[in-house]
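Running log. JK asked me to keep both predictions on one page so they can be read side by side. First protein, sequence followed by its tokens:
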Amino acid sequence: MGPLTLAVDSKSCSGTSSGYGFADEYCKKTQYAPIGTRKSFASVSLHEDKPFDFLRTLFEGVIAGGTAGVVVETALYPIDTIKTRLQAARGGGKIVLKGLYSGLAGNLAGVLPASAIFVGVYEPTKQKLLKMFPENLSALAHFTAGAFGGVAASLVRVPTEVVKQRMQTGQFTSASDAVRLIASKEGFKGFYAGYGSFLLRDLPFDAIQFCLYEQLRLGYKAAAKRELNDPENAIIGAFAGALTGAATTPLDVIKTRLMVQGSANQYKGIIDCVQTIVREEGPPALLKGIGPRVLWIGIGGSIFFGVLERTKRFLSQRRPTLPEDSKQD
């Protein structure tokens, strides 16, 4: 995106002199003078001479997102299990530390397509919005792209999350049993239990986390005046993930309670869930599992964004190069 120019009326600045020295001088200096835009966040420039390859960006996003999602889920699944059991426990219930990898295989079957869909939607949406928005609104482009990716991925994420959390809390022993019994007892809608609370948590989470990550990364690159290496990407990802994870913990608690309640339906909805938790367990219960959640998402952000950027770079280095004459055409 090139610099903006200040246009001055040609009738007042061309032809005869105005008779006022300062006016003539002003016309000479400002007719095509570039002006800066106020940049409230880190800014990014996308040059118009680089064509936007939607299918290539989509493909690379799908591969990079799927790879990063599987790696981080496998590495940090036990911490996620402990967090889920802490949030699901009512009152002073004890936390069982056995079977911390319960439901991993079934969860990976959902994490792989969900992560692939998220990044596959996020990357081309981000690139398109960055071309449409002015430089000082790059944060809005990242935030909006994160929300779009979250909505698309939620269609796979929610059923996966329902099955995973039911297994983590000991309701089922295998993913196949979980799918079969949820379908028979609760019907298709059972796989989308807590969908509203899931969106309430994940849409702001995805949007804020990716916006923070991208803006911090752009700011760091501008200060360092070079491309970031893998450890730097990982550190920025960890910070963005931990901060966003802490801020959205109450939403995560509500989502967990609604998803694991099953056919008992002890909560009538999001508002009733909040009121019941506060009334029976006190406001601090809304922060249950914040320690494991911040640890899990902080480390997860480090791994996810580190693997994501490395995979994107690996794929970009293997793009087919066009001949020089075709580039000029």
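And the second, directly underneath as requested:
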Amino acid sequence: MADEVVLLDFWPSPFGMRLRIALAEKGVQYEYKDEDLRNKSPLLLQSNPVHKKIPVLIHNGKAVSESLIAVQYIDEVWKDKAPLLPSDPHLRAQARFWADYVDKKMYEIGRKVWTTKGEEQDAAKKEFLECISVLEGELGDKPYFGGKTFGFVDVALIPFYTWLSVYEKFGNFSVEAEHPKFIAWAKRCLEKESVSKSIPDQQKVYDFVLEMRKKLGIE
């Protein structure tokens, strides 16, 4: 019996993009359902009753929530192609550490960059660039975070590249000017079809955020 895979998602979500990339890396066919987050579907509320958030992966009727947990699930279930986590326990732990670092930092700091002003925004910009600097240090001279092959940390981080023009335009700074190695890594990831076809264009995300700012009353 063929696997039945459904992804409940919202197109600009960097967390949902992680699952799209992981499924593309594995060559898994799935049904994509874009959620209206102001009017969540009964399927989403039933599949993730605790957090009521996207993304949710539904595999043969069983739901898996939280993006990094779902990416690990995808890696374990479809393990015959494009392993995302290394086999060595220590390297695997390191990959989980850095993916967790991305989770704890990028979204919240980035959100502050485009929703705040003045000193609060300046502090957010400084923290955002410090975060990029730390990640760039971990990347070092490797092509990808895990070494020679695209892996778990890359999947966790690359979706935030789609939001970069949002952070840069509202924050009035350039990541490439200060962290060219980070941008070179992002462009390397985008050369992969599993990435380029799974994430939206930066301009599309920027236009979405412009509308969001209007709704939030941010001028």
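Observation for JK regarding the second prediction: The first strand starts at residue 5 and ends at 9.
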